[in-house]
Amino acid sequence: MSTIEKLLRVRPYSTMRVEGDPMGREHWLYMHSQQQAGVRPCFRTELMDEMWSYLTSITLRECQREPGQLRHVVLASDAPAFNLGGDLELFSQLIRNNNRERLLAYARRCVDGVHHLHNGLGGDVRTIALVQGDALGGGLELALACHTIVAEEGVGMGLPEVLFGLFPGMGAYSFLCKRVVPQVAEKLILDGVIHSSEELYRLGIVDVLVPKGEGERAVQELIRQQQRAPHAHLAMNAVRSIAQPVGYDELMGITEVWVDTALALGERSLKTMDRIVRAQTRNCAAA
């Protein structure tokens, strides 16, 4: 069996749930499926491996279809949180061991995924983030990489990395600067505040804001609207890549700064990171 055939096989996933329509026009990916009690809904390496493998399989399927047909990929979550960001427990371990190689490999894996999403999985896909629970750090970066962010009211969204001396290094600055002016992007990164989805909607970062429980219906309606003018939305993908490109080299250059900054953190910052991990674990166990 060829590599392409293996990637195209439908297989069960241990960290996520996927759904789609028979015509292959919609692909829904729910992170943190079958989440065990106390397991944090963050970017564990197992989740990233399965997500990027699934998205690659979609890209390969699109290559085999007639060009010019609009598809949609929706990123959502089965956990109470959308995504709490990077694996802080792993970060703490790698920083204490001064393991730059593994930390950079993790960061590169993140960049590979968000860059692929931002580019519409090759061009014929519109990506939608459905945020029904907190999206923090890398979780917000994932949402920002998508074409459209649909969020429910009362959700926390923010970039708290500054609390332990870091910054969000896997696309936040680049993607935010496509939605707000750089001064606002830097303020959001450096204040470490968790904002409400309502606040980010007023800033123009969240595209669609709906009442609690109405997120999936809103995404379905958005997909129906876009399918009424598929060529216009496919053209907008191309226009966006010309007028507002976010290059891979740019993302990797920033993430290398992130790695070097992380490795310079002292024990006080790492202990703050450890406390956040314990708090997240307790909250997940209680959910």
Features:
single chain; 287 residues; alpha/beta; 2-enoyl-CoA Hydratase, Chain A, domain 1; six-stranded mixed beta sheet; three-stranded mixed beta sheet; 12 helices; 9 strands; 14% strand; globular; disordered N terminus
CATH classification, class level: Alpha Beta
Strand order of the largest sheet: 1-2-3-4-6-9
What percentage of the residues does DSSP assign to strands (E)? 5-15%
Number of DSSP helices? Answer: 12
Largest sheet: 6 strands, mixed
CA-CA gap between termini = 42 Å
H/E topology pattern: HEEHEHHEEHEEHHEHEHHHH
What's the CATH H-level superfamily name?
A: 2-enoyl-CoA Hydratase, Chain A, domain 1
- The CATH topology name reads 2-enoyl-CoA Hydratase, Chain A, domain 1
Structure report:
This protein has helices at 3-8, 45-63, 88-96, 100-118, 138-145, 172-176, 182-191, 197-203, 215-227, 230-243, 248-263, 267-286; strands at 16-20, 26-31, 71-77, 125-131, 135-136, 148-152, 156-158, 194-196, 208-210. It is an alpha/beta fold. The chain has a 6-stranded mixed beta sheet with strand order 1-2-3-4-6-9, sandwiched between helices. It has a 3-stranded mixed beta sheet with strand order 5-7-8. The longest helix is centred in the last third of the chain and has 20 residues, at 267-286. It is globular, with a radius of gyration of 18 Å.
